[in-house]
Design goal:
19 strands, 10 helices, 8-stranded antiparallel beta sheet, protein serine/threonine phosphatase activity, 9-stranded antiparallel beta sheet, protein phosphatase
Length: 527
C-alpha cells in the first residue's frame, strides 16, 4: 500500500544505507534500527537534513574485476565500500596507489603551485593527468580530515555517497555499468579523488585572484566567499530556476569585477572542474584498457553511465552522461510556505542521452554526416542506446574496435568517436520551495515516471518522517515488476540474478531530503 513499507522476506537488498542530521542542536534523534551516534557538528551551510540509498541487482556479473593489476579491487574499493551504513574514514588520497598508470600520464601538473607567478592553470590536455600530490591539498573545500562514506555494488551498478561534517558538503554518484562492471568499478575507485584534485586547482586559481584583487579581504578563501555569497543572496527571494552549463569553460566575464572570486565565478569554475575530472577519468580508463586488452579484449566494450551530484551550501551541482536521472521535488511558488500541504512538482535536473531523445539523435547524426549507418536498429552503430558514456572504447577508437573478433567488431567505423564524453552539467540553487531530490539509475525510471517517483516518496515521507524512502521506493518497484511479469513477489525474488534481468534492470537510487531552513548538528546512521 502507498505509504507503507514492508520488508521483503525473500531476499535483502544489495545496498541499503541512511544518514540523518538532527534538526535540534545537541539532541539525539531516535530513528529505526539506530546503530551508532556519530560525533561532530555540521556547519551552518549544510542544506540537507538526511538521505537514504538502496540498490538491487538483476545482472549477473563478476564480483570484482582485476583491472589495474587488482589495485582497485584489493586496495581502493574495500576502503570506500560500506553498503549497509555510513562509516567514518580518513579522507586520504587513493589515486597515489594507482602506480599502474604510466608515469608519463602522471601529469606535468606536479609543477603547479599557488604562487602568484603563475597567471592561470595550464590548458587541460588528454596526456596531462593528475599530480600525485595535489596543489593546495589541505585548503580546497572538498578536503577534510575525515568523511562519512557509504556505497557498494549491485550487479553492474555502483553507488557512492560521501559527506563531510566539518566542511558541510555532500557528494553522491551512481555509475551504471554495462557489458561488465569494470568501468563502474574504475569510477568508484577514482572519480571522487579526481574531483578533489580539480577543485584544488580551482581553489589555487581563485585564491591568487582574490589575493591580488582584494588584498586578502576574504582570509578564508574563495570557497568560504562562495558560501557567504550564497547565504547573502537568500536574504531576499532566492534566484529561481537552474543554470545549465553545456560547455564547461569558466565564464571570464564574471572575473572582470572588483572580486574575481565572485560566487558566480566559483560556480562556473566548479562546473568546469567536474567536467575536467570526468575527462581525466576517461583518459585514465581508456589508457588502462589499451594496456590490458591483449589479455582481456572484452574491456574495449565495457562502459558506464555517470551521474554525480554535489551539494555545497545552497548550490546543487549535477553532472551526467547517459540515462540516469536526478529529479527535484519542489513546491509551487504559492505553496512554498506550506510544506506537506502544497502541490509538489517534479523537475528533471539532468538530460537523457539516448537515441530516443530527439535532440541527442539529431546531434549524433549531424556529427557523422558521412556515415549512413550511424543509428541502426535504434542504437548507435547498432550497439548502444546511450549516446554519451565513459569507456566503451570500441566505439571511440579504431584500434580498440580492431581488438574485437568476428561479429563483435563494428563494421565501417567511419568517423569515431561515436559516443561522447561531454557531460551535461547543471547548477540548481536550493530554495525554500525545494523538498527532496531523487538520484537514480535508469532501472528506476523503467517503471516510474518522474511524477510517480516524487509522489511515492512524498507520500512515504509524510507517513514515515524517520523512515527510509529509498528502500521504500525500491520495494514499490519490485512489486510493480512482479505484477508486470505476472509473478508474485516471492516468485520474482527467487529468480537468480542474470535471469531476473529479463524482468527488471539493476536499480540504484538515493533520496536526499533537503532542509535549507533546518540547521544540523549531530548525525546518526542506520541499516
Amino acid at each position: 500500500m502507498l505509504g507503507e513499507s514492508t520488508v521483503n522476506p525473500y531476499g535483502e537488498f544489495k545496498i541499503s544505507f541512511g544518514y540523518k542530521c538532527n534538526a535540534h542542536k545537541g539532541c539525539s534523534c531516535l530513528i529505526p534500527n539506530e546503530i551508532e551516534n556519530l560525533p561532530g557538528k555540521f556547519p551552518r551551510n549544510s542544506s540537507f537534513s538526511r538521505l537514504s540509498g538502496a540498490a538491487l541487482s538483476a545482472n549477473a556479473t563478476l564480483a570484482n574485476t582485476n583491472i589495474c593489476n587488482g589495485v582497485i579491487r584489493e586496495e581502493i574499493l574495500p576502503s570506500w565500500d560500506s553498503p549497509n551504513s555510513f562509516r567514518r574514514i580518513p579522507s586520504s588520497p587513493t589515486l597515489s596507489r594507482l602506480d599502474v598508470l604510466s608515469s608519463s600520464l602522471q601529469s606535468s601538473m606536479s609543477n603547479l603551485s599557488c604562487s602568484p607567478a603563475t597567471s592561470s592553470p595550464p590548458e587541460y590536455d588528454s596526456s596531462s593527468l593528475r599530480s600525485m600530490s595535489s596543489p593546495c591539498r589541505n585548503e580546497g573545500f572538498l578536503n577534510a580530515m575525515e568523511v562519512q562514506v557509504a556505497g557498494g555494488a549491485a550487479g553492474e551498478d555502483r553507488v557512492q555517497a560521501v559527506c563531510s561534517e566539518e566542511n558541510g558538503w555532500l557528494f553522491c554518484a551512481i555509475f551504471d555499468g554495462f557489458n561488465g562492471r569494470d568501468a563502474a568499478d574504475f569510477l568508484a575507485g577514482t572519480l571522487y579523488e579526481n574531483i578533489i584534485h580539480q577543485a584544488n586547482l580551482l581553489d589555487c586559481e581563485l585564491k591568487k585572484d582574490v589575493t591580488g584583487a582584494s588584498n586578502g579581504f576574504y582570509p578564508h578563501g574563495p570557497f568560504q566567499y562562495a558560501l557567504e555569497g550564497a547565504r547573502n543572496s537568500h536574504v531576499e527571494k532566492p534566484p529561481a530556476g537552474t543554470f545549465n552549463k553545456k560547455n564547461s569553460s569558466i565564464d571570464n566575464s564574471t572575473k572582470n569585477g572588483p572580486f574575481p572570486d565572485s560566487p558566480d565565478s566559483f560556480r562556473h569554475g566548479m562546473l568546469d572542474s567536474l567536467q575536467r575530472a570526468v575527462s581525466q577519468a576517461e583518459n585514465d580508463f581508456l589508457y588502462m584498457v589499451e594496456q590490458e586488452m591483449d589479455d582481456r579484449p572484452d574491456l574495449v566494450s565495457v562502459g558506464s553511465c555517470v551521474l554525480v551530484g554535489l551539494l555545497h551550501g545552497m548550490d546543487l551541482y549535477t553532472l551526467n552522461l547517459g540515462d540516469s536521472r536526478a529529479v527535484l521535488a519542489t513546491y509551487d511558488e504559492e505553496d512554498s510556505e506550506m510544506k506537506g500541504c502544497g502541490r509538489l512538482k517534479a523537475i528533471q535536473l539532468t538530460d537523457c542521452h539516448t537515441v530516443d531523445n530527439e535532440l541527442e539523435r539529431t546531434r549524433v547524426l549531424s556529427d557523422h554526416p558521412d556515415d549512413p549507418a550511424v543509428i541502426a536498429g535504434g542504437k548507435v552503430k547498432g550497439k548502444l542506446k546511450v549516446t554519451r558514456a565513459l569507456g566503451v572504447g570500441y566505439l571511440k577508437k579504431k584500434n580498440l574496435n580492431d581488438a574485437l573478433m568476428g561479429i563483435l567488431r563494428v563494421r565501417n567505423l567511419i568517423s569515431p568517436p561515436y559516443i561522447s564524453i561531454e557531460p551535461s552539467l547543471n547548477l540548481h540553487r536550493i530554495s525554500k520551495s525545494d523538498h527532496f531530490v531523487i538520484v537514480g539509475s535508469d532501472g528506476l525510471f523503467d517503471f516510474f515516471s518522474n511524477d510517480e517517483a516524487v509522489k511515492l516518496v512524498h507520500s512515504y515521507i509524510l507517513s514515515n518522517p524517520n523512515g527510509d524512502p529509498a528502500k521504500f521506493l525500491l520495494e514499490q518497484l519490485v512489486g510493480r515488476a512482479a505484477d508486470c511479469a505476472g509473478f508474485s513477489l516471492e516468485e520474482l525474488m527467487n529468480i537468480p540474478a542474470g535471469r531476473r534481468r529479463k524482468y527488471h534492470d539493476d536499480v540504484t537510487l538515493i533520496v536526499i531530503i533537503l532542509g535549507a531552513n533546518q540547521r544540523t548538528s549531530k548525525a546518526s546512521t542506520w541499516v
